[in-house]
């Protein structure tokens, strides 16, 4: 993400950033930074009337114009690599009409809003992540493999490969699988984690060493008890990302949720649900607030977060695209690790 602040933010955090998404991750971040009531400025296509257009309406031409949009809602779909911003035109031609801005990578927008600390932290993370390479995790076992790209919103499966039939697979079938995996990895950059149970992953790494020293030099092996997506989650939870990337957010999410459920199971210093988290904040007992990304925008939770920030609590926003965030949703979307237990 590229971010340029036009002028210093006001005391209440109000101001304007020029933002350019450089990846799918950036579009996801923007989907949580742009909220209802914000103003987004962008160059978009609008039909511009001319005298000839009135005579031949079917020939009406769409031209690039700069508009300001008061946001009503935002939609992000990873499959389409596009972010759609819906709202009412508040600046430019056709004021008062509804319009949709389609934000793609490389497209610059200006976002005017009140920037809370949690919003600035997300923006800082998106900007810093632009400097890092993408991490791929290969979850491999006898006869099959799945390759995931580690996005900032969680692991995204990009391909599944199946060759052979497990215990009955012959050596040439395993080699065929290894060749398919290597063919895919030759197309990617950045670090690669090979994860899974048993010795198949070790055989694959040895195969890669014999075929491509460049790819072998970017591989880190991680032993797991589970396979498939479970191996990916286990590898991330075991801190594999701390060794291959600077962005530790996904590992933190897994770690925080494991600690939360441990405390809940022991009836320890934890709270979950907005009302209980608010109560803990009022008591001054909160050490870390965990909040689902789709709840950050809600009025009730926003006030809780502001109070938590004022008392110096750590705030961690969890992606609901990733398993820890989904687990948090099951607890009401908000939880807290406390300094001490409260009744």
What do these coordinates show?
With 343 residues, the chain is of the alpha+beta class. The protein contains 12 helices and 16 strands. The chain has helices at 24-33, 51-55, 117-129, 171-185, 200-211, 213-216, 228-237, 241-244, 249-265, 274-283, 299-310, 323-329, and strands at residues 2-5, 14-20, 39-48, 61-77, 82-91, 98-103, 108-114, 135-141, 144-151, 154-162, 192-196, 219-223, 270-272, 286-292, 314-318, 334-338. α1 (24-33) packs antiparallel against α3 and α10 (274-283) runs parallel beside α11. Residues 165-169 have low confidence and may be disordered.
Strand arrangement, major sheet = 1-2-7-3-4-5-6
Number of strands: 16
Helix residue percentage: 25-40%
Number of helices: 12
Task: Please indicate the percent range of residues in DSSP E strands (runs of 2 or more).
Answer: 25-35%
The major beta sheet can be summarized as:
7 strands, antiparallel
Descriptive tags:
343 residues; alpha+beta; 7-stranded antiparallel β-sheet; 5-stranded mixed β-sheet; 12 helices
Structure, briefly:
With 343 residues, this protein is of the alpha+beta class. It has helices at residues 24-33, 51-55, 117-129, 171-185, 200-211, 213-216, 228-237, 241-244, 249-265, 274-283, 299-310, 323-329, and strands at residues 2-5, 14-20, 39-48, 61-77, 82-91, 98-103, 108-114, 135-141, 144-151, 154-162, 192-196, 219-223, 270-272, 286-292, 314-318, 334-338.
Give the topology.
Layout: E1 2-5, E2 14-20, H1 24-33, E3 39-48, H2 51-55, E4 61-77, E5 82-91, E6 98-103, E7 108-114, H3 117-129, E8 135-141, E9 144-151, E10 154-162, H4 171-185, E11 192-196, H5 200-211, H6 213-216, E12 219-223, H7 228-237, H8 241-244, H9 249-265, E13 270-272, H10 274-283, E14 286-292, H11 299-310, E15 314-318, H12 323-329, E16 334-338
Parallel strand pairs: 8-11, 11-12, 14-15
Antiparallel strand pairs: 1-2, 2-7, 3-4, 3-7, 4-5, 5-6, 8-9, 9-10, 13-16, 14-16
Helix pairs in contact: 1-3, 10-11
């Amino acid at each position: 993400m590229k971010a340029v602040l036009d002028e210093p933010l006001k005391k209440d955090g109000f101001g304007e950033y020029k933002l350019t998404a450089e990846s799918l991750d950036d579009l996801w971040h923007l989907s949580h930074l742009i909220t209802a009531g914000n103003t987004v400025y962008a160059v978009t296509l609008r039909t511009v009337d001319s005298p000839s257009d009135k005579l031949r309406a079917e020939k009406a031409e769409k031209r690039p114009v700069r508009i300001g949009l008061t946001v009503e809602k935002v939609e992000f779909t990873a499959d389409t690599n596009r972010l759609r911003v819906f709202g009412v035109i508040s600046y430019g031609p056709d004021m008062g009409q509804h319009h949709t801005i389609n934000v793609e990578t490389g497209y610059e927008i200006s976002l005017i809003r009140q920037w809370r600390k949690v919003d600035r932290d997300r923006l800082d993370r998106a900007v810093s992540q632009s400097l890092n390479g993408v991490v791929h995790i290969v979850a491999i076992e006898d006869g099959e493999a799945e390759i995931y790209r580690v996005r900032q919103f969680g692991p995204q499966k990009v391909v599944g490969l199946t060759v052979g039939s497990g215990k009955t697979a012959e050596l040439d079938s395993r080699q065929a699988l290894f060749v398919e995996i290597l063919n895919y990895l030759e197309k990617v950059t950045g670090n690669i984690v090979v994860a899974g149970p048993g010795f198949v992953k070790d055989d694959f790494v040895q195969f890669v060493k014999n075929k491509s020293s460049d790819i072998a030099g970017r591989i880190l092996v991680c032993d797991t008890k589970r396979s498939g997506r479970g191996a990916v989650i286990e590898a991330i939870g075991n801190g594999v990302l701390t060794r291959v990337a600077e962005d530790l957010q996904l590992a933190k999410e897994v770690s925080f949720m494991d600690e939360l459920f441990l405390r809940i199971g022991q009836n320890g210093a934890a709270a979950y649900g907005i009302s209980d988290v608010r109560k803990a904040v009022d008591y001054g007992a909160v050490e870390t607030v965990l909040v689902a990304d789709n709840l950050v925008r809600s009025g009730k939770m926003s006030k809780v977060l502001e109070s938590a920030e004022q008392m110096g609590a750590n705030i961690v926003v969890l992606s609901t695209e990733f398993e820890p965030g989904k687990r948090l949703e099951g607890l009401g979307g908000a939880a807290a690790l406390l300094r001490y237990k409260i009744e």
